[in-house]
């Protein structure tokens, strides 16, 4: 039996033989309950479309102000970068640095790397830096925190509401959509993408 | 149950931690590279317990200044107030937004403390070679992996308030050292849980 047919649970080390699943089915480890793999519903075109949509929304979420404040005529709007810079100037550079990484650079890198990997695979071959791109994607996964920032925006709005007039901006809606799309994009199992890459290289349709 | 499960270690197999590719002897040797993705092969995460302890203890020490130091300064022409995490939660409760107070309390207090307790439980149980409720302990590990990053919430809220509330007349908000410490706590606890290898829970022999 080929080793490709085996799957090892990364949480309890149990070995199973991979078997084809019906749509919607998932395979969980019988010993520890860890999610092993799911039915392949990988469609390169669809995934690429999702990546491009995420990229567009990412730009919008960063160009337009997330919220604006109006306090009796005095007006101030904040973009995500504005928040990073203001935090830096406020004397807590480490907080600014961490926030910039977790809500700007990691999501941006994820989008770029997905686009790079998928565009290459769609042309029927592995892009030159496929390994590095895939490793970077799997390392960044736990540190990408757009959804936490989204909740942070909501908490900040409710905190200010009542004291001042809070005006939600285009950036807010864009960021909300970004959160959803990014969650959809990163819900794909990177290990499946490795399998797809092998199929694509072997000339089998993905 | 359909008999006993066989482990990769018993069969001499290693599943790559990055791409999931399964390798057999003679390739499956600690330190070799994965044939598919080139990642270093490991039977278990290296120095898992030591690294987990180190990050966890550092996080618990940093948790003290994170709670006692100022998270956020509110300055306006009439007065200025310094808020810590708990005083911020109490403020939200008193201001008539108890839902928000609960969200922030869960993310900033319950999740970090819960994570400390959970990681301590996992570490001590592995050191003692416990064979009790392995499924439950693995599930506990999965939970802390999933929810750990939500603690960053309060740090982001402070960053946003600093950016928004900057008026000459009506005052401004500044971040304090507590925000740095708390951000550090979240990063350290995440590194602690990433260092922990849940397979260690299953490696001890069954006690009869």
Mean pLDDT of chain A: 89
Q: In CATH terms, what is the fold-level topology of the largest domain in chain B?
A: Butyryl-CoA Dehydrogenase, subunit A, domain 3
The level of helicity of chain B is: 55-70%
How are helices and strands ordered from N to C of chain A?
A: EEEEHEEHHHHEHH
The average pLDDT value of chain B, as a whole number, equals: 91
Main β-sheet of chain B, in a few words?
4 strands, antiparallel
Percent in helix of chain A: 55-70%
Pair of chains with the largest interface and how many residues each contributes: A-B, 64 and 73 residues
Shape of chain B: elongated
CATH architecture of the largest domain in chain B: Up-down Bundle
Distance between the termini of chain B: 19 Å
**CA radius of gyration of chain B:** 22 Å
Determine the strand fraction of chain A and express it as a percent band.
Answer: 5-15%
Strand fraction of chain B? 5-15%
Tell me the major beta sheet of chain A: 3 strands, antiparallel
Decide which structural class fits the backbone of chain B: alpha+beta
| Total of helices of chain B | 8
SS content category of chain A: alpha+beta
Multimeric status of the protein: heterodimer
How would you describe this structure in keywords?
heterodimer; A: 206 residues; alpha+beta; 3-stranded antiparallel beta sheet; two-stranded antiparallel ribbon; 7 helices; 7 strands; elongated; B: 208 residues; Butyryl-CoA Dehydrogenase, subunit A, domain 3; 4-stranded antiparallel beta sheet; 8 helices; 6 strands; 9% strand; membrane (chain A); transmembrane helix (chain A); Paraquat-inducible protein A (chain A)
